[in-house]
Amino acid sequence: MEQVSTTERPKKQEYRANSADAKHGSVVMYLDMNSYFASCEQQLNPELRNKPVGVITYDSPNACIIAPSMEAKKYGVKTGMRLGEGRQLCPHIIPVTTNPYQYRRIHVKIMEILHNYCDDVIARSIDEAVMNMSSYKLVYKDMQEVGRKIKADISREYDWLKCSIGIAPNSFLAKLATEIQKPDGLVEITPENIDEKLSKLQLQDLPGIASRNERRLQLCGITSPLQMRHTSEALLRKAFGGVVGNFWYRRLNFGEIDLYAHENRNMSAMRTVSREQRENKATLEAMLVALCTKLEQRMVKQDIFCRDASFFIRYRDSTGWDTKVRFQQPVQDGLELRRYLVQQIEMFERSRNTTMFNKNTQSLGVAIGSFMSGGNLQYSLFDNRMKQDVVRKAMYNIKDKYGRNIVRKGVEMLDPYVMKDAIGFGSVKDMGNGIDGEIVNKYMLEEDF
Ligand SMILES: [Mg+2]
User: Fold this and answer.
1) What is the domain count for the chain?
2) Is 238 exposed, middle or buried (0-12, 13-18, 19+ CB in 10 A)?
3) Are 364 and 346 found together in one domain?
4) Which of 241, 364, 385, 431 is deepest in the core (most CB within 10 A)?
């Protein structure tokens, strides 16, 4: 903790807007490494090049292929298949066990290359990054030329790695542009060509639109991305049932919704306390644990970490307390979050000689903010934490697969194979393993405030 404050009954919390309007003439460049894990393996071991490779989590026919190489994809091998299934499609597929450390190391190098061209680089995941080039328009006359130079720089460093680069007035369309040409793509979407580009796409080609959202749109008579772009904001609101519809309208009309979404957004969890609950201090303390765990779940889902947190409590006489903590290192773990808050609470209680959790408690809540994406964390600096982060991810993956209650916080019991599994799933965006098979880009449709 480097900065703390405790204040008495502040004004109602103001929520910052979940969007930064694209200024006229914004330019965003998006980079997506092609078949990243498998290509890294081929980079590191040239004998694997031009061969169908399946990166797996552990050596067994039941292992999941978390990343097929481009050659394996040609046989129909897909991310998430079992190795046995992959072998049926491609009998000579070469299984390779995952090497997360190497993928992170190469990721850091690629980020360095991007930083040579632009100060405003945000890693979206281990193999994706977005660059806000808006303030470089006078520096670089030709953004496509910059894209080609970046590709050349990556090739010089790692001759086997390929990427798709998208350029557009906002980050959503720039990401979409990377999907249009793979591998080794370079596509620019402009106000002049957007309709032509969209006319070749299906709804599910849009990152963030999977079957559930496609159905919602179809129910409103919207059957293609082109139609979606030319529909009214009101109809999109109706289709998505609220503000998410406005976001989609703006994405397809050059507004910026996603670029700094992490940084701007706050998340909070709150509980109102019943009469019986406020009688028992232990219950209130358990509630704090539950709130922190809830926020942890949401952070793991979105692969983000917070750098500040606040705790608030309200009493029946409408007085209350707010306390805010800023962390030196980003936090995702719910119990760590709780520990920092409890330190604050205890400090406060000592200084005032009072008890914060008392019989007048009406509600309590925790809010977190200043997020950064998991891809931005430099794990080499604190390897110990990496293990914890990986275990946490593993636990949630198991919960998603087999149900909420199958594992609890006794996480040290998980075996290392399961942990390896988790690294892949946490990082591979096109798994479609979100809620209801939805969500390609986990950040785009979340509506936490
Ligand atoms: Mg990729």
Assistant:
1) 3
2) middle
3) yes
4) 364
Residue 384 confidence (pLDDT)? 55
- Dihedral angle computed from the Cα positions of residues 227, 229, 233 and 238, in that order, rounded to the nearest 10 degrees: 50
How many angstroms separate the alpha carbon of residue 429 from the centre of ligand 1?
Answer: 8
Please tell me whether residues 273 and 362 are part of one structural domain.
yes
Residues 7, 51 within the same domain: no
pLDDT score recorded for residue 59: 82
Q: Which two tokens stand for residue 218?
A: 């179809």
d(CA 36, ligand 1 centre) in Å: 6
Q: Which two tokens stand for residue 327?
A: 């962390």
Rounded distance between C-alpha atoms, residue 128 and residue 122, angstroms: 9
CA distance 374 to 333: 13
What's the confidence (pLDDT) of residue 124?
81
Q: Are residues 278 and 336 in the same domain?
A: yes
φ, ψ of residue 192 in degrees (nearest 5): -75, -40
| CA distances, 223 to each of 210, 226, 227 (Å) | 13, 9, 7
List the single range of 57-61, 88-92, 113-117, 235-239 with lowest mean pLDDT: 57-61
Domain with 294, as residue range(s), is 1-18+263-377
1, 67: one domain: no
pLDDT score for 47:
97
Residues 373 and 267 in one domain: yes
What residue has token string 């050349």? 152
Q: Which two tokens stand for residue 378?
A: 């430099």
Domain shared by 246 and 273, yes or no: no
pLDDT digits (tens, 9 = 90+) for 322-338: 888 888 888 998 989 99
Helix (H, G, I), strand (E, B) or coil at 284: helix
d(CA 127, ligand 1 centre) in Å: 5
